Amino acid sequence: MVETGHFALVLAFALSLVQTLVPMFGAHMNNQKMMAVGGPVAVTGFTLTALSFAALAIAYATSDFSVANVWDNSHSLQPLIYKITGTWGNHEGSMLLWVLILTFFGALVAAFGRNLPAALRANVLAVQGAIGATFFLFILATSNPFARLNPAPIEGRDLNPILQDLGLAIHPPLLYLGYVGFSICFSFSVAALIEGRIDASWARWVRPWTLVAWMFLTGGIAMGSYWAYYELGWGGFWFWDPVENASFMPWLGGTALLHSAIVMEKRSALKIWTLLLAILTFSLSLLGTFLVRSGVLTSVHAFATDPTRGVFILCILTLFIGGSLALFALRASRLTAGGLFHPISREGALVLNNLFLTTATATVLIGTLYPLAVEAVSADKISVGAPFFNLTFGPLMVPLLVVVPFGPLLAWKRGDIFAVAQRLMAAFAAALLAVLVTALFIDGASVFAALGVGLAFWLICGALTDIAVKSGFGTVAPGVMLRRFAGLPRSVFGTALAHLGLGLTTLGIVGTLCFGTEKILSMHAGETVQLSGHMLRFEGLYPAQGPNYSEDRGRFALLGADGSTTAVITSAKRSYPVRQMTTTESGIKTIGFSQLYLSLGDEGTDGSVVVRLWWKPLVTLIWGGGLVMMAGAAMSLMDRRLRVGAPSRRRKSAGAVPSASLL
Amino acid sequence: MTRKQKRLSVIAGGLAFLGAATGLTFYALGQKASYFYMPADLTTASLQPGQRIRLGGLVEKGTIERGQGATVAFSVTDNQKQVKVTYTGILPDLFREEQGVITEGTFRPDGVFVADSVLAKHDENYMPKEVADGLKSKGVWQESKSD
């Protein structure tokens, strides 16, 4: 089975070369038969990669320690779910997941792209094949997951205990679906450059792929953030760690792309810019892969360090980023510029969005790469952390968030800013009220905290205003309003939901950072502690045994007003004997949208235990907002105009009416 | 305004925006990046009072003292010099004697380093990269130091 997997991977590599060369020459020579090769080859390549991945997963599930990769990252006593997720909890396996998803997207283009122009489809598949070929070669040459051990060891070395969590089942697949998903946008852009033209079907196609990738990336980042929050026991939801930045940069770039693609699709303006953004977004994904997989950074994500791998990925990076940008420089002038617009218009607002987002991406990029650059040219080792990003990323995001509610209400081509401001009066009043209530009624609220809460409410109410205005709230009879509400295009709801989610995330961040409280103390069994109005009693430490670990559980009773126990919170120190590693399992109690978070420290000599407690107001909204953003993207995807082949005449009658007639 | 003037003003606005962002970025890099030192480097380093740095090395054997509550004191060494560090909080799970550690914080006037964060290795065969490189350059690196 293992050899079958290896063989399937070699075949998939060979097919990816065919997928690159044949359709591209076919498109060049206008040979229909050669162009048609791309589709079936892409589907077969995906099937073979899936087979290869399944072979590795089966080796993991059955604890086949004759495979070096399984021996290194698994243990027979692990629960089955962690045995399976362990497949991608290591360098080789996660690269296999990477190509699996890459070929999956290629197969999707082959399956759903039948009505694309033949040459465009052939070129897209060829570029997708080329990306696949380099990564297949990378896996086969430097990171073969199927290498055998002889003699086979009896027992494995266990999966890194930090990764023995349900988070590993969800976070990497979602993240990869997002950041590898942008490869489709990249392939479409390069294909357009090869052909030297962009037509209407190009724009109609790129937008849904961007939405899909963005949706998964949002979910992957939110899930990763929550995982780090509860697993590491540090109580933080974002550390500005270079590896987090590696996934955040494509997200920022993808968000910009999402917005510029709207302009391109609706107004056929910003064509060249959109194309460049698509290239840059996937380039950031590749850069992220390099940062995480090459070992230039040390983190939980860098499973193993091997210099040849780093150099190899750097070559791939140079080939695709350099190649696509060179092609862009050569061909971009051939593409025709699109329609003109006034600075104050929906297009103008979306350009402003792009300006802020790309600049923010650049600051994150500089902050992430600067330490590497400094280390390369001098002996100094520096680190750039939260203080840097708070000073640069923060000031760029706040003005962007302030203007978000204006965007969707402005008309295309030429908008009336005063009319929009009038429509937003209610949202502004709500935000002002939130600022006043926070400043006056919450103890210890700083001006910044109050303004932050106001900003969050401004975003949330702004998103609701968008829907209300477009359904004619207050201007037409309730019956008409309901009909209009039901008839609004799904993408209008998508926009509103995504902006609403952004507001919720903002509220969660402001709540946690500005109103959270924290205590570190050493406690004996029976002692009580009070934190932001919550009374906790430490009940003591109890030993317990898991399948492949032993733990000391600290039990804490949450006490009601009358002194009775209302809930029990458990935090544990786990010890994994195989890796001689200790992990901290945090104890979390969700109360409304807020959480009480506690983690155990060391045991003192007198039987006391160091305990760190946090009260994190509204913290769940940070990730809840991410889910709402995902729902927004899903809603937009259901819009009928994104269903390829839907008649465009109906789109005009359904989609253009609300914004045009009301402004 | 003519169309050309309008376009120019938009471009000028964009450039001014980018310029401001660039300026802010480089200001922040100058102010907020923290340098990494090992104990022996400190004699030659010129630190401003209150400057944040990262101090790395090995936790010296027999120096871990648990004080009142959650405060811990220990020495960080590169086998040439030692620096006394205090930290209030929960130490990482893999914090042990004679293991690599990176602490971040500032020096108190009496020469004690007050750390507000302590990072140790992630698993049994990982040493913080800066610490490993530093020990190598000082010639005190021993392969397979793990226990």
From TrEMBL, chain A:
InterPro entries recorded: CcmF_C, Cyt_c_assembly, Cyt_c_biogenesis, Cyt_c_biogenesis_CcmF
Function: Required for the biogenesis of c-type cytochromes. Possible subunit of a heme lyase.
Keywords annotated in UniProt: Cell inner membrane, Cell membrane, Cytochrome c-type biogenesis, Lyase, Membrane, Transmembrane, Transmembrane helix
Segments traversing the membrane: 6-25, 37-61, 95-112, 124-141, 174-194, 206-228, 248-265, 272-291, 311-330, 351-373, 393-412, 424-442, 448-469, 490-513, 618-638
Compartments reported by the entry: Cell inner membrane
Membrane topology: Multi-pass membrane protein
UniProt protein name: Heme lyase NrfEFG subunit NrfE
Record has Isomerase as a keyword: no
Family classification: Belongs to the CcmF/CycK/Ccl1/NrfE/CcsA family.
Highest rank taxon of the organism: Bacteria
Record-level Gene Ontology MF annotations: heme binding; heme transmembrane transporter activity; lyase activity
A GO CC term assigned to this protein in UniProt: plasma membrane
Pfam families, per the entry: CcmF_C (PF16327), Cytochrom_C_asm (PF01578)
Span of domain Cytochrome c assembly protein: 88-294
Automatic annotation (TrEMBL), chain B:
Gene3D superfamilies listed in its UniProt record: Nucleic acid-binding proteins
Compartments in which it is found: Cell membrane; Membrane
Record key words, sorted: Cell membrane, Cytochrome c-type biogenesis, Heme, Iron, Membrane, Metal-binding, Signal-anchor, Transmembrane, Transmembrane helix
Residues in coiled coil: none
Binding site for heme: H122, Y126
SUPFAM superfamilies per the UniProt record, alphabetical: Heme chaperone CcmE
A single BP term in Gene Ontology: cytochrome complex assembly
Record bears the keyword ATP-binding: no
Extracellular side: 29-147
Membrane protein topology class: Single-pass type II membrane protein
GO cellular component: plasma membrane
Superkingdom of this protein's organism: Bacteria
Family, as annotated: Belongs to the CcmE/CycJ family.
NCBIfam families found in the cross-reference section: PRK13254.1-1 (NF009727), PRK13254.1-5 (NF009731)
Protein name: Cytochrome c-type biogenesis protein CcmE
Source species of the chain: Mesorhizobium wenxiniae
Lineage, broadest ranks: Bacteria, Pseudomonadati, Pseudomonadota, Alphaproteobacteria, Hyphomicrobiales
